[in-house]
Amino acid sequence: MERKEAFSAGKGDLAVEVKDVSKCFRLYRDVNYNLKEKIINWRKRGYELFWALNDITFDIYRGETLAIIGPNGSGKSTLLRMMTRILRPERGEIRMHGKVAALLDLGAGFHPDLTGRENIYLNASILGFKKREVDRIFDEIVEFSELETFLDNQVKNYSSGMYVRLGFSVAINVNPDILLIDEVLAVGDEAFQAKCLERIRKLQDEGKTIVLVTHATNIAAQLSDRILWLEYGKIRKLGNPWEVAAEYHEAMSLRPLGEEAGSKELEITEVGVFNHDGRPSEEFQTGSPMTIRVRFQAENPVEDPVLSISIHDSQGLLVYGTSTQRRGFSLGTVEGEGCLDFKIPSLMLLDGRYFLTVAARSRDGLVNYHHLDKKYQFDVKSQGKDEGYLGMNCEIVRLRKA
């Protein structure tokens, strides 16, 4: 039984137990309009009760990675803070079986007037480590953070990305049994994000339990063994990562707003996405053909324009792109209406929602005729044999011993 199948079946010892947990906050209504009224009525401030979490129950297994998704205000970060005991539930209980390290708000556990060096010791001490224990892993923390140059500067002068580097480096190097990560990873630059994701995979291989709060459902599906979908403080769904992510995409209608720009000397009038039957479609199987049809027009002659397509993931990262120029195809002089097909014989993308950008520009790239940025979307489903963005043929052969 594979790793994700094992956790889906509920195998293994428990690392986290969440039993009938509810958390309530008071939302105050300040109806006093001047200082005198505020002093007279300070005991009479009205408030409403807001149940951030309402009677939720689930378990996390030792060595499992659980991703928590949901719209803003659904209770994701509140749940993580209760796991760290920063907050306590009104009802129910949370049991953590093992040493916990957490990466929550930017700067959480840091003192702005202390240097990066001093804050490493401070942050580790909050996690229960003694100075001599931190001394042994100090060099590894600094090396991973890549902040040697700034180590003796006060962290109040750090950028948000530098905060994340330092916090994540401490959290992963104190060797926790359970690692809790909030959305803060989205702040770092691409290179460091990739480095963090690679370290998370290494921690998974070492059997660590990871709880990840994220809005990036594609990453959640790729990294996690199960996804927990919270909505209005309740569990909407808990289960197979790709199935939950697909339903979440559908329910939230996740797509960028899309942007349009350009001089429109050459205007893109219509874009169609077609399946193997030549029918318009927004759903494809990995390996199936796709045709992207672009209709355009120019009232006056436009000399040798370039048409391009690009495919982006739900975070806006470029997955694939090409153009008539890159393919050695010349449109010549365009006047009046025209139509062009980009034929992809085998779409090798894996599960996820993708967004299509279509653009027209001059050959030297100096004039943007028309740019339709992420205006179109489609979903891809696979057989679930692989992970990542790209599907590839892979044959596994068992060799006989010599």
Give an account of the 3D structure:
With 402 residues, this protein is of the alpha/beta class. It has two domains: 3-252, Rossmann fold; 259-381, abc- transporter (atp binding component) like domain (Coagulation Factor XIII, Chain A, domain 1, Distorted Sandwich). It has nine helices and 18 strands. Strands 5-6-7-3-8-9 form a six-stranded mixed sheet, with helices on both faces. Strands 10, 12, 14, 15, 17 and 18 form a six-stranded mixed sheet that branches. Helix 4 packs across helix 6 (160-173).
What is the fold named in CATH at topology level of the largest domain? Rossmann fold
Cα-atom radius of gyration:
26 Å
Strand content: 35-45%
Q: What is the CATH H-level superfamily of the largest domain?
A: P-loop containing nucleotide triphosphate hydrolases
Order of helices and strands: HEHEEHEEHHHEHEHEEHEEEEEEEEE
Provide mean pLDDT, rounded.
Answer: 85
How many domain units?
A: 2
Report the CATH architecture of the largest domain.
3-Layer(aba) Sandwich
What percent of residues adopt helix (DSSP H or I)? 10-25%
For the termini, the CA-CA separation is: 29 Å
Q: Helix/strand/pairing class, anyone?
A: alpha/beta
Please specify the SSE layout and strand pairing.
Layout lengths: L2 H6 L5 E16 L5 H6 L5 E16 L3 E5 L6 H8 L7 E6 L3 E4 L12 H11 L4 H15 L14 H14 L4 E4 L8 H16 L3 E5 L3 H7 L2 E6 L2 E6 L1 H12 L6 E3 L5 E8 L8 E3 L4 E14 L2 E7 L5 E6 L9 E12 L7 E10 L6 E14 L21
Parallel strand pairs: 3-7, 3-8, 5-6, 6-7, 12-18
Antiparallel strand pairs: 1-2, 1-4, 8-9, 10-18, 11-13, 13-16, 14-15, 14-17, 17-18
Helix pairs in contact: 4-5, 4-6, 5-6, 8-9
